[in-house]
Amino acid sequence: MDFLRILEQALGELIAPTTAAYALAAIGLNLHFGYTGLLNMGQAGFMLLGAYGFAISTIAGAPFFVALLVAIIAGALFALLLGIPTLKLRGDYLAIVTISAAEIIRMVGRSTVFNEQTGGSSGLTGNSFKETFLGLSPLPDGRSAIGPLEYLNNGSDSWWVRIVAWSVVLIAVLLVWLLTRSPWGRVLKGIREDEDAVRSLGKNVYAYKMQALILGGVAGSVAGVLFVLPRAVQPDSMGRSMTFFIWTILLLGGAATVWGPVIGSMIFFSVYMLLRAGMRSALPDAVSSAQIEQIGGMLVGITLMCLVIFRPQGIFGDKKELSFNVR
Amino acid sequence: MTADRGKTTIRRSLAALMLSGLAALAAAPALATTPTSVATATSTCTPDTETACIGVLVLDPENNRIADADIEITGPEGFSEIVTTTDDGLSAVAVTETGKYVASLDATTLPDGEELGEGAETEITVTAQMGGTARAAFRIGEDTAVAPSETASSTGEGGLDGDGSTPAASSGGLKADQVWTQIGSGLRFGLLLALASVGLSLIYGTTKLSSFSHGEQVTLGAMLAYVTMNVMGMPIWLGAIVTIALCAATGWIQDAGIWKPLRKRGTPVVQLMIVTIGLSIALQYFIQLAIGAGTQRIITSNPETWSLGPFTLTRASWVSMVIALVVLLAVAWFLTRTRIGQATRAVSDNTALASATGIDPNKIIRIVWVLAAGLAGLAGMLLGMVFGSFNWMMGMQMLLLMFAAVTLGGLGTAFGALVGSLVIGMVVELSNLFIPSDLRYASALLILILVLVFRPQGLLGRAERIG
């Protein structure tokens, strides 16, 4: 039955590698926005940089963990570069600078100048950088099914990718949980609520903000690696819309909560799939598939607006934690 | 200030804006003293910052041009068009995506007696670059050994010299006329950018909100111009008035429906900013739904070029520049000489103090939203005409340049936005001379970051503590 198939697709989205990648990116953004109050509008830039770092160093012959390290360092350096000029300024300057920097990375990535390294606007194909990762898989070849979900054990869209992606997400959740209940995390929240008060306690606000920016940025660049593992590196698929989707996910789940980004990502993608697949089967003749994507996108935008207006704390959040304003 | 007086003043100012726009339309032809066409008579494409041209020609062994051969050009995003050659020039087609295009010659359309030689190419791959003409020259007849297969002229109209037999690659060295062309384009882009960013700056000044949906307001202008002039077939003046009126109306609706209630509730600016992001996503997809994901042309006729001094631009560009200049002057007059304008600046300066002196900030902010949306719509319409074509991403690309301009000039200062826009427009176009055209927007964004490092208050901003 058609309805069952749609449900199955939505269920598949719950554990899809892309969902995990967005969840991890949203966890990073949560560190920025939810806990520290930093407006990072360029999370997709961190992801793209991570993806490029990983893919290019793999193509150059680096083993998997070295390539991953390159991605992490790239994210950290990018955060440092962005943070130095902007963290001392008012919050919305960081927003403008991060969104611009993310765009610069995308433009440079897709430009013809670095065609040999980045593949220009057509990007880098998945097969050119996937081997080292797939080589690590301990799973036997073949297909496995859990309930209605059946995937290959190894390969692009496989159980192996899913297991790794979600393990990384779980580790990140654990880290965020530990960090935010530590003294360090309390200082971050203090900065979010009242920067001057924290400063008057003798804390170096700038350093704390920078640490948060780097940690969240690294989460973003690892998320970028997860995002490209099942597909190719395509600069245009990692632009502003991606950042905005991550924001929607974060605010849907609830900023400043440990599980908010993960649950937000799961709900976002399965509902998004339900909507699109539902529309496709309900009105197969009335609208084309491109139009369904567009209507879906419009609904995402409207959802984001309504969320912020009517329930800024999201599903799990605490409204008191989000009443701060950027000065 | 009473509401009545406010209304009459704003009406008068709007009327002045409109009149001046129309006057500019009428006066523009007189400006260009020598309406010479630089491009070869038969060329059907003028390369531009948003347009690349692909020219095709078919040559016989004596380098004579063969007319009436059909050449199909295919490229990225499903681009496909058939061009018929002529015997006195380069037949060109305008494309809006850079990348590799394949020109394939349909041998059956060659005139009688002309045949492809042994081993002659029927497919040539060319790379289209913004602001340049990529050529594909096919050779027929016996002597086909050395066919000049690809030459992409780097910038400007220089590529269309019409002499196909000795296609010279002009990528090296800066030519004076190239620099002039880029300065002209830079001025044009700066003026149009200023139209859009003045509104962004006014919104920021009065509400402290960085509106991320301002880019879509620009696209909306282009879209409505396309719908009214192209789809519905209105004359340009009527279409322009309807477009601007509708765009201004969206500003009114937004403020009445979203921003004013949220202001009343005391929603933090950060959350408002995220609401504008949501609005921007929704509008983007709405525009895609309305006009499709491809590029559209508002004016479909071939652009005619006029020269004035060293500058050669299309007619639409000259007219747009004059309109932009007049409207910007009118805005400046409005801000400095009218009571409403002065009140607007007072609210920007210090909202609490302004309301204590009897100004109603909500009324001013409403006017600012209407004005900003209208100006953005006008900018979008003009940009769509000047660049030849537009798509749903136009505003998104413009938004960051607007931010760059507004920050460069000083956040919240309307005149800073004007200065910043001119600088950014110039930088974007002039950087074409030194770096590949697909990186020219990146140069503007780099400036934005540098400004924030060294002079965060912008060129005209007041140095104050902003940390």
TrEMBL record, chain A:
<keyword id="KW-1133">Transmembrane helix</keyword>
<protein>
    <submittedName>
        <fullName>Amino acid/amide ABC transporter membrane protein 2, HAAT family</fullName>
    </submittedName>
</protein>
<keyword id="KW-0472">Membrane</keyword>
<feature type="transmembrane region" description="Helical">
    <location>
        <begin position="159"/>
        <end position="179"/>
    </location>
</feature>
<dbReference type="GO" id="GO:0015658">
    <property type="term" value="F:branched-chain amino acid transmembrane transporter activity"/>
</dbReference>
<feature type="transmembrane region" description="Helical">
    <location>
        <begin position="51"/>
        <end position="84"/>
    </location>
</feature>
<feature type="transmembrane region" description="Helical">
    <location>
        <begin position="244"/>
        <end position="275"/>
    </location>
</feature>
<dbReference type="InterPro" id="IPR001851">
    <property type="entry name" value="ABC_transp_permease"/>
</dbReference>
<keyword id="KW-1003">Cell membrane</keyword>
<dbReference type="GO" id="GO:0005886">
    <property type="term" value="C:plasma membrane"/>
</dbReference>
<feature type="transmembrane region" description="Helical">
    <location>
        <begin position="295"/>
        <end position="316"/>
    </location>
</feature>
<dbReference type="InterPro" id="IPR043428">
    <property type="entry name" value="LivM-like"/>
</dbReference>
<feature type="transmembrane region" description="Helical">
    <location>
        <begin position="212"/>
        <end position="232"/>
    </location>
</feature>
<dbReference type="Pfam" id="PF02653">
    <property type="entry name" value="BPD_transp_2"/>
</dbReference>
<keyword id="KW-0812">Transmembrane</keyword>
TrEMBL record, chain B:
<comment type="similarity">
    <text>Belongs to the binding-protein-dependent transport system permease family. LivHM subfamily.</text>
</comment>
<feature type="transmembrane region" description="Helical">
    <location>
        <begin position="316"/>
        <end position="335"/>
    </location>
</feature>
<feature type="region of interest" description="Disordered">
    <location>
        <begin position="146"/>
        <end position="171"/>
    </location>
</feature>
<keyword id="KW-1003">Cell membrane</keyword>
<keyword id="KW-0029">Amino-acid transport</keyword>
<keyword id="KW-0732">Signal</keyword>
<feature type="transmembrane region" description="Helical">
    <location>
        <begin position="367"/>
        <end position="387"/>
    </location>
</feature>
<dbReference type="GO" id="GO:0006865">
    <property type="term" value="P:amino acid transport"/>
</dbReference>
<dbReference type="GO" id="GO:0005886">
    <property type="term" value="C:plasma membrane"/>
</dbReference>
<feature type="transmembrane region" description="Helical">
    <location>
        <begin position="399"/>
        <end position="427"/>
    </location>
</feature>
<dbReference type="GO" id="GO:0022857">
    <property type="term" value="F:transmembrane transporter activity"/>
</dbReference>
<keyword id="KW-0472">Membrane</keyword>
<dbReference type="Pfam" id="PF02653">
    <property type="entry name" value="BPD_transp_2"/>
</dbReference>
<keyword id="KW-1133">Transmembrane helix</keyword>
<keyword id="KW-0812">Transmembrane</keyword>
<feature type="signal peptide">
    <location>
        <begin position="1"/>
        <end position="32"/>
    </location>
</feature>
<feature type="transmembrane region" description="Helical">
    <location>
        <begin position="186"/>
        <end position="204"/>
    </location>
</feature>
<dbReference type="InterPro" id="IPR001851">
    <property type="entry name" value="ABC_transp_permease"/>
</dbReference>
<protein>
    <submittedName>
        <fullName>Amino acid/amide ABC transporter membrane protein 1, HAAT family</fullName>
    </submittedName>
</protein>
<feature type="transmembrane region" description="Helical">
    <location>
        <begin position="224"/>
        <end position="253"/>
    </location>
</feature>
<feature type="transmembrane region" description="Helical">
    <location>
        <begin position="273"/>
        <end position="295"/>
    </location>
</feature>
<feature type="transmembrane region" description="Helical">
    <location>
        <begin position="439"/>
        <end position="455"/>
    </location>
</feature>
